[in-house]
Amino acid sequence: MKIGRFSCPAASPDFTIAGAISLPTLVFPVTPTYIEKAYAKPFLSDATRVNIYDGVQPYQRQALDPRGDQCHWFEFTTKDFYQALQLSDFRDFQVSENAVNLDQITIQPKLFLTQLKLLSALRNGELSAEAGYEQGLLLLDCVLTLQTDSNIACLSAKKRNAWQALANGAQQMIATCPEDNISVDWIAKQLNSSAFHLCRVFKAVFGMSLHQYRLMLRLSLGLVRLMDNQSITDIAMNMGFASLAHFSTAMQKAVGCNPREIRRQLQS
């Protein structure tokens, strides 16, 4: 197993042709990026999801953020990855010629923090290679056993595609400026929808409200910033929270620790 960080500026001439992925890999995005995998529908990559690459399908990407593509990645052997798929409780994957019809899975900030802690512990020499390997396999298991029941599976293909497109449009607007408090009405207007219809469609597609999605995204990105030396108050305000107390309360509820405790864990 290999673990690392990846960063490619949007201005890079090699941005569209993504970094080579030759083995099954979990990717935890930091910046929003639009991903187009061969033989699959395009999707938005952001910090509320973990992306799954099987090492077989080529893919390209489009920049949505001036910082380009920033992420953390966990690469597994083909043997470990496919054994994990077969032993997991995930119901919706299919394997065909070593390709998996699995693009991304929604995760909570607590799982995003788990991978940050693993990166930090290995960087600081707190875990041996063997212990890091074990923790990486447990992380893979946690990701693959997450399950969500689709609320749009019973719709006609035409309506399902329309709902997916509407929800994806709203997702992209929030992901590209998570710190801004853009209203549901404004988002709906840009997408030629009513606020009511947008809210019910987004919840049906993603299993959460627009507000919950934005909060999850802010918390996950806040976790990344806690690895640096920026003041916690500045992080809270820059991520769109009303106050430091608001940020601390939301983080405590989401991951079980306040920002100061998390910073100590990530920087120790």
Helix % is 40-55%
Give the strand content.
15-25%
* Number of beta strands: 10
Main sheet: strand order: 1-7-2-5-10
| Terminal-residue CA separation | 24 Å
Structural class: alpha+beta
Number of helices: 10
Tell me the overall shape. globular
Order of helices and strands: EEEEEEEHEEEHHHHHHHHH
> Taking all residues together, what is the mean pLDDT?
87
Contiguous low-pLDDT stretches (5 residues minimum) are 94-99
Major sheet summary line: 5 strands, antiparallel
Radius of gyration: 18 Å
Please, could you describe this protein's structure?
- This protein has 268 residues and is α+β, with helices and mostly antiparallel strands.
- Helices cover 46% and strands 16% of the residues.
- The chain contains 10 helices and 10 strands.
- The strands form 3 sheets. Strands 1-7-2-5-10 form a 5-stranded antiparallel β-sheet, with helices on one face. A 3-stranded antiparallel β-sheet has the order 4-3-6.
- Strand 3 and strand 4 (43-45) form a beta hairpin.
- Helix 4 (157-175) crosses helix 6 (195-206), helix 4 packs across helix 7 and helix 8 (232-238) crosses helix 9.
- The chain is globular, with a radius of gyration of 18 Å.
- Mean pLDDT is 87; it is low at 94-99.
Spell out the blueprint of helices and strands.
Layout: E1 2-8, E2 25-29, E3 33-37, E4 43-45, E5 49-53, E6 59-63, E7 69-75, H1 78-87, E8 95-96, E9 99-100, E10 104-106, H2 109-123, H3 129-144, H4 157-175, H5 184-190, H6 195-206, H7 210-225, H8 232-238, H9 244-255, H10 259-267
Antiparallel strand pairs: 1-7, 2-5, 2-7, 3-4, 3-6, 5-10, 8-9
Helix pairs in contact: 1-3, 2-3, 2-7, 4-6, 4-7, 5-6, 8-9
